[in-house]
Amino acid sequence: MSILLTGDHYWIGTDTRQYVGIFLSQDTSFNGNGVAAYNFLSKTIWNLTNGNYHVFLLALSFLTVLFFILSLQKLKSDFFESFIAVFIYISFYFYFESFNIQRQMLAVSIAMFATCFFIERKYLKALTFFLLAVGIHSTALIALLNFALIKIKKDKKSLVVSMIALSIMLANVNIILQLFAEIFSHYKIYISTVESGSLAAGGGALILGLFFILIAGTAFFMTDAFSSKIYSFTFFATVLGSLFYIIGMNSQMLIRIADYFLIFAPVFIPRAIKKISNRFLQKNIVNCFCCAIVLIAGLTIMTYKLLNNFGDIVPYSSDIRFWM
User: Fold this and answer.
1) Which of 262, 253, 92, 233 is nearest to 170 (CA)?
2) Helix, strand, or coil (residue 168)
3) Residue 318: CB partners within 8 Å, gap ≥ 6?
4) Going along the chain, which residue ranges are E strands?
5) Phi and psi for 141 in degrees, rounded to 5?
6) Rounded to an integer, what distance in angstroms lies between the CA atom of residue 110 and that of residue 131?
7) How far from the centroid of its chain's Cα atoms is residue 230's Cα?
8) 17 contact partners, CB below 8 Å, separation of at least 6
9) Residue 41 to residue 140: CA distance in whole angstroms
10) What's the 3-state SS for 92-115?
11) pLDDT for 72-86, tens place per residue?
12) pLDDT digits (tens, 9 = 90+) for 29-41
């Protein structure tokens, strides 16, 4: 991201100019909830670099990817799983989201890392990184639901109950957004956006959610989805996150909430592929076939979104100048 911003007047991402402006002015009053750690990071980079916003953007991007990679290591992903996970992370637009909702995607990565410690029962470290994530972006409070998912007994009954409960909640989306806005006033702009469509998520959220559900459903019927703690948790997280994408496709806020669950889809999918492939005698052929589907789907989604320039990912020019 930083490389693409080396020119004085070329930008990527819808929110980049806003974040750069806040960094250059060192404005600490915006979105008063959940920015203490972010403000500290911004102030530190400002002091160390004499206000170089290129370094600031590079740091945000680096940390976002770093915590995702560290999470893969914590979740004991092998080379194949890590390769597919990184491919999904990039091609399914998780990485490109960090060009726009920069604070939140950093919080998502840190919250993911915190969840890894929670899985290992290292609760103090989990709490530390969870609070750090909340200090970056208040929506990281959603990660508490991941902690709950880890603790609940995961079987067919709990899966059905969770899906029904979530579907009922999402059917009353404006009530959820109203409650969230009562705690964090910044999000009042998302109230009633489902009906108005003014802040619709767009970008094929429905198709992406259905694709993830298809993979999770296939894994459910062809593998033991509850065979291990990590596999069952990532399965649950993928299913619930997909429901957010499908039912909440007309709300940016719900899609943002979904990312705290779906960030585990890149971990789940390659493991599901391996388990499904092992059910067949020609497991290598099946494995290649499943991987090809994921690779083609990822490239198709990324191409579609880039061609339509969702989130202004394609570098664009601006008349705004920042003098230092």
Assistant:
1) 253
2) helix
3) 9, 10, 11, 17
4) 10-11, 316-317
5) -60, -25
6) 9
7) 18
8) 11, 318, 320
9) 17
10) CCHHHHCCCCHHHHHHHHHHHHHH
11) 999 987 888 999 999
12) 665 555 788 888 8
Look at residue 21 and give its three-state secondary structure: helix
N- to C-terminal Cα separation, the chain: 20
Please report which confidence band the pLDDT of residue 156 belongs to, taking 50, 70 and 90 as the band edges.
confident
Q: Which residues on neighbouring strands pair with residue 317, listed in sequence order?
A: 10
Structure tokens of 31? Answer: 């979105």
CA distances from residue 205 to 60, 167, 201, 247, 258 in whole angstroms, order as listed: 25, 16, 7, 9, 11
Half-sphere exposure of 44 (CA within 13 A, CB side): 8
Contact 20, 321 (CB under 8 A): no
Beta bridge partners of 226: none
Residue with the two structure tokens 């029962």: 121
Helices (H) and strands (E) in the chain, counts: 16, 2
Token pair listed for 111: 């919250």
CA–CA gap between residue 61 and residue 266 (Å, rounded) = 18
CA angle 126, 129, 133 (to 5 degrees): 130
- Residue 233 tokens read as 């948790």
**In degrees to the nearest 10, what's the CA dihedral of 308, 312, 316, 321?**
170
Q: Supply 287's token pair.
A: 């494995």
Residue that is written with structure tokens 């585990």 in the block:
264
At 184 the pLDDT is 64
Residue keyed to tokens 């890149």: 266
Q: Is 236 exposed, middle or buried (0-12, 13-18, 19+ CB in 10 A)?
A: buried
For residue 19, CA distances in Å to 4, 16, 46, 134, 160 come to 16, 5, 13, 18, 41
Whether residue 245 contacts residue 205, with contact meaning beta carbons closer than 8 Å, is answered with yes
